[in-house]
Amino acid sequence: MEQRSGTVLYASMIYAGAFVIWPRLKPVAAGAVAVGFCWAVEFFQLTGVPAALSERSLAARLVLGMQFDWADIAWYPVGVVPLVLLHLWVRRRRARGGARADPGSRAALPRG
Q: Which domain holds residue 80?
């Protein structure tokens, strides 16, 4: 399970990194960039270049991995999709006025 959680965490960090590089990206676009990047790195592992680089560098191992795994292809979206959905939810909530628009929030209750 540790390997899968690492794969999910890697994908979520790539999602966050997309906003560092392109701060104005929309959540769905950032999600597509993140999953696309992860898949590209995973398929790049088929060449053997990442494995060779990973033997010499911890940074290369962390960024590029060492060997291709079909399961990773499915796990990358697991790390990104929940973040995209959460990001969209937060943006919509802010657009509606946040807690003030939520009738169940304490801020919306009359004082008295």
A: 2-101
C-alpha dist (Å) from residue 51 to 8, 46, 84: 20, 9, 31
Residue 41 lies in a domain: yes
Written as tens digits, the pLDDT of the chain (112 aa) is 557 888 999 999 999 999 999 999 999 999 999 999 999 999 999 999 999 999 999 999 988 988 899 999 999 999 999 999 999 999 999 999 865 544 555 555 444 4
pTM of the predicted structure, to 2 decimals: 0.80
Three-class secondary structure assignment of 21-87: HCCCCCHHHHHHHHHHHHHHHHHHHHHCHHHHHHHHCHHHHHHHCCCCCHHHHHHHHHHHHHHHHHH
Number of domains within the chain: 1
